Each structure stands twice: as structure tokens, then as C-alpha cells.
Amino acid sequence: MTGSSMRRAFEWSSGIKIFQDRSDLSRSLAELVLDAAERCVEAQGLFTIALSGGSTPREAHRLLGREPISRAFPWDRACFFWVDERCVAPADWASNYGNALRDFLGQVSLPPENVFPMPAELPPLEGARAYERVLSRFFDPPPGSFPRFDLTVLGLGSDGHTASLFPGHPALDETRRFVVPVRGGDPFMDRLTLTLPVLNHAARTVFMVAGRDKADAVRAVLDLEDPRLPASRVSGNRAWLVDVEAATKLSRRNGLDTPRQEGAH
User: Fold this and answer.
1) Using an 8 Å Cβ cutoff, are 210 and 244 in contact?
2) For range 225-238, the mean pLDDT
3) Looking at domain 11-259, which of 3.40.50.2020, 3.40.50.1370, 3.40.50.1360, 3.20.20.210 is its CATH number?
4) What count of other Cβ atoms lies within 10 Å of the Cβ of residue 265?
5) Count of CB atoms within 10 A of residue 225's CB?
6) Concatenated DSSP letters of 198-214
């Protein structure tokens, strides 16, 4: 499939799309990222994306590094950042940057200077401040404003967390910083995360969610809009790509959209 035909297959829309299996879900996310990259490069010459980690997006990442998507992707005009990171070395299995490097970034024609991993090997507070300086230099936001990514890709934990923003954590109340250190999650460890003001300043956000263990959280965020859950506090131009297992407890009032089989490839 060529880039232009993929663009026709995946026009951006907010709301919820349900996919029959993880293969379709992963392919659709990869096509969405390609579409966003092509459009942004055409409009402004550059594409900025903040990636999430964990196991759910890894197959989509691998598809970005394979034909036909890899051939169509404007690698030289795309800049990759991260929404969060575990404080481990890139060689560690838990490293979001390390997994992205192994899954696709290390296999495509991407200039090294276009990759901006979080400095996870520094002490957490020092790493957060260092990454905030990176974002400030790159985006140069006006005083009092925040970096504006063209696209952020987020996941959803079974407890309703997103990025490394966990329920009840003081980081949820941050209003000025771009990046903060946190300690939590599974595995319970030191992490760095973008703050809610940065996530909410993105031009577009896509959530990718898979698995029956996420069904309660999906319902709590999308049906109940539970403000205690961090993912409920992500606003703006959002799209949700969800597999059928994660969508089992959603009500019909959300206007669910199940793509036709040919539209998901």
C-alpha cells in the first residue's frame, strides 16, 4: 500500500474506533502516524511526535520500520520524543527508548539528531530538568506556555494511568513544569514523565488500548469520565484506538465506530 492510499484509508477523526484484533489495531496506529507525519511535513516541513512505551504499541512500532510504511515515512523531517521513561539504561528491557530503538528507530534512515530520548540514566530530578531544557530549546514556547507536539501517542493502564501519571500522584497537579520525576507503576520504579499541561497542549493525541484487563479503565474514562483517573484529564483533539477486548464494557452512547476490515489495512 502506498502512502497516498494509506492516507485515504485513515483520515484523522476524534472519537473511538474498535478493532477486532491487535494486528488491525497496530496497523491502524502505524498508518495514523504515517498520515500525521506526511500531513505535517507537507504543511510545515517538520513532524514532532512523542511516543509511549509498554508492550501495546510495540507491534505498531515494528510496522513503522517495515515496508511499505518505512519507505513512505519522511524520516529526515520527523523528530521523535517520549511521553515517559523508566529510569534505566537503554539496554534494559524496561527502557521505552531502548525498545523503540530495537523495534524500528535503529533500522530506518533517521538522522540521529532527530531522536530525543529522555535522559533516564541521570538522577530522576536532574533528568527531568535536563529534558525540560531539551524541550525548551527545541520548541521555544512563549513564556508561560508549553511545547506543542504534532502528535502524542498514549496508552492506558488498568488503573487509569497514562504516560507515568498515576492516580493520586502529586504530579497530576503540576501546572508549570514540562517534565517531572515520579515513582510508581508496575514495575514500581523511578520514572520521568511529561506533565498534563504538555499532553493537553498537543495538536493531536491518540490513545492505543488493548486487552480485557483494560476494559474497566476504558469504561471509567470514556463512559464515566472519572476525574480521578489521569487519562480522563487528557483533553483536546483525542482519538481512541481500542481492541474489542478493551471495549467490552463501553456503552453505545459513545458512538462507537468499528472500521470496516478493508479500512483497517
Assistant:
1) no
2) 95
3) 3.40.50.1360
4) 14
5) 10
6) HHHHSS-EEEEE-SGGG
Question: What would the pLDDT profile of 85-129 be if each residue is shown by its tens digit?
Answer: 999 999 999 999 999 999 999 999 999 999 999 999 999 999 999
The full set of domain ranges for the chain reads 11-259
The answer to whether the beta carbons of residues 208 and 153 sit under 8 Å apart is yes
CB atoms closer than 10 angstroms to residue 173: 8
For position 152, what pLDDT does the model report?
98
Q: CA 48 to CA 153: how far, in whole Å?
A: 11
Can you tell me which residue has the cell 476524534?
A: 14
pLDDT at residue 258 tops 90: no
- Torsions phi, psi for 209 (to 5 deg): -135, 135
For residue 163, pLDDT beyond 50: yes
Question: How do beta strands 151-154 and 179-184 pair?
Answer: unpaired
